[in-house]
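Table 4 source record.
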Amino acid sequence: MSLMRYETWPAIGRWHRDLDRLFDEISEFTREQDSQFVWQPRVDIYEYADRFELAADLPGVDPAGVDITLKNGLLELSGERSTAVNAEGVQRHRKERRDGRFYRSFQLPDAAETEGVSAESRHGVIYIRIPKRAQAQPIKVQVSS
């Protein structure tokens, strides 16, 4: 006898996924109409004892074409991905990957040090490291008599 996963309402799970996809498509279309930026990469943010780290999924994007700017406590990430095929006789049957200009911005916390920020690309992921400021340690002052 094999075990099967039992779903009381399988249609609700499908409906939820379809609704998420619909809202993603609507927001992408709205952004495309309202600005020059078409899509936003997915980003994870981590905090370590000595730094913050952002990991941005940018497969198919040339790392040299990614702009990372720090200005007034705001980190901006932008660039462009092109998936256009310009060969004769090619007919596209499906397009699921976003191309065009992308943009993300993040407000940096006060503990972030803007000096010494570094970025590297590995396997289609851009890692941005932002060191933390050295925080002033409390000191105990002796009162003399």
